[in-house]
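Weekly sync, protein design subgroup
Attendees: M.S., D.O., the rotation student, P.L. (late)

Item 1: inverse folding check
M.S. brought a backbone from last month's batch and wanted to see whether the design step gives back something sensible before we order anything. D.O. pointed out we never logged the input encoding, so this time it goes straight into the notes. Structure tokens as presented (118 positions):
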């Protein structure tokens, strides 16, 4: 843990997805809350996306950060702000249109989370 899931409404919203993932992982590592090997992140563009009622609405990047419980609101907010900064630094021009960037931090239910390494 943590797991970072980034959904972009358009393929060209970020300059370099590999660099974005590296920057986010580094930002989370910098919090001293995690070790590098535990940070899992991925970025993708869903096949079907709609913001509002038509394609003229803002593009968006939705980020889900899933963490184990035990970190207070201040630490969680810091993580979200670090992720926002990392994403903003990798944004493409997007033809001058607005891009909404959202981060949701979710604590996992320890009783319902299972992991094995094989």
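Designed sequence read out in the meeting:
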């Amino acid at each position: 843990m943590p797991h970072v899931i980034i959904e972009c409404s358009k393929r060209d919203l970020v300059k370099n997805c590999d660099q974005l993932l590296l920057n986010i992982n580094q930002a989370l590592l910098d919090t001293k809350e995690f070790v590098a090997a535990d940070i899992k992140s991925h970025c993708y563009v869903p096949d079907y996306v709609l913001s509002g009622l038509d394609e003229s609405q803002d593009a968006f990047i939705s980020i889900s950060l899933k963490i184990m419980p035990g970190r207070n609101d201040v630490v969680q907010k810091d993580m979200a702000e670090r992720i926002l900064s990392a994403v903003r630094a990798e944004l493409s021009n997007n033809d001058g249109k607005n891009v909404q960037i959202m981060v949701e931090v979710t604590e996992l239910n320890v009783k319902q989370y299972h992991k094995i390494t094989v």
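Discussion: The mean pLDDT is 91. The helical segments are 17-29, 73-89.
Action: P.L. to compare against the previous round before Friday.
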